[in-house]
Amino acid sequence: MKTTAYAIGDTLEMLCSACDLEQNHTVQAVTKQGKITKASCEACETVSTFTRGVKTSVNMGTGKNASPYDRARKYRKGQAMTHEKFGRGEVTAVIEPQKIDVLFGDTTRRLIHSQE
Ligand SMILES: [Zn+2]
Predict the structure, then answer these.
(1) Confidence band (pLDDT; 50, 70, 90) for 4?
(2) Which residue ranges make up each domain of the chain?
(3) Which terminus of the chain faces fewer neighbouring Cβ atoms within 10 Å, N or C?
């Protein structure tokens, strides 16, 4: 498998969790293998850290764009997400303005959302 090696100071487009958009990021730190461990968003200067390499918008499965679960975000039915404990999930119902049911595998979990 071919992987791209990055160097500090390189710029690349990736998803900024603060902007919630693909933004140019400047590489701040890399591993010996050239994997990005830290990069800052050029738009909002938020520094993202990557313990397992670069986050990409390529997902397995349905091809829906699944962003990491963020309780501040407002979810709609059918939206996909990734949860650090539960893995990939999909919103099956909005229960209350700030509660959602999310199906992870074959387990539905109630999560909060829209917490400003
Ligand atoms: Zn940003």
Answers:
(1) confident
(2) 1-57, 67-112
(3) N
Q: From the CA of 106, how far away is ligand 1's center (Å)? A: 34
Q: What pLDDT digit, counting tens, does each position of 63-103 carry?
A: 456 889 999 999 999 999 999 999 999 999 999 999 999 99
Contact 81, 75 (CB under 8 A): yes
Instruction: Please tell me the distance between residue 82's alpha carbon and the centre of ligand 1 in angstroms.
Output: 19
Task: Please state the pTM of the whole predicted model.
Answer: 0.46
Residue 102: closest CA among 81, 72, 73, 71: 81
CA distance 72 to 36: 26
Amino acid of residue 54:
V
Q: How far is the CA of 68 from the centre of ligand 1 (A)?
A: 15
* Residue 112 reports pLDDT greater than 80: yes
